[in-house]
Structure prediction request, 164 residues.
Amino acid sequence: MGNRTLTTPPDQHKRCHFYNRVEVIGRYSNPPSTPVDLHRLLTTIPPDKDLEVVDRPPRQHQRRLRPEELLSLTADYVEGVEVIELAKRYRITRQTVLVYMRRLGVPRRHPRLGPDTANQAADLYLVGNSLAVVGNILGVDPGTVRRALLKDGVSIRDPQGRPR
Prediction:
């Protein structure tokens, strides 16, 4: 069978494995008792199909912030830096930024509407105010108002104010 090497450029992340791993392992698990059986075993694997190259992305590395980085992250979040920018700056995901803020007890910048506020939003919307106006009155994003209204079963008007 001979030694085969697979060379790949260092910038590509590739993984090699046997073409038919189960068949090869099964054949080698029961070693042949005669030289004829050994020859048959070695010639049954096609010479150009014993390796298969599979592209795969690089492994994700977990990044934990040190205590001083957490203090800096918290200060930046409270100052109003966007979550996406914080994620890039600290090399973590957007969700991780929010998880850290929740663990540290930092209040959300765009809080969800509670039941009382959602009822107030529904009342304001049903009298004819737009999502943007209701959001400005309550100090939240119009998308937050829309989600709360849909959750409460209120039908949303189209942009021209007509019922859908």
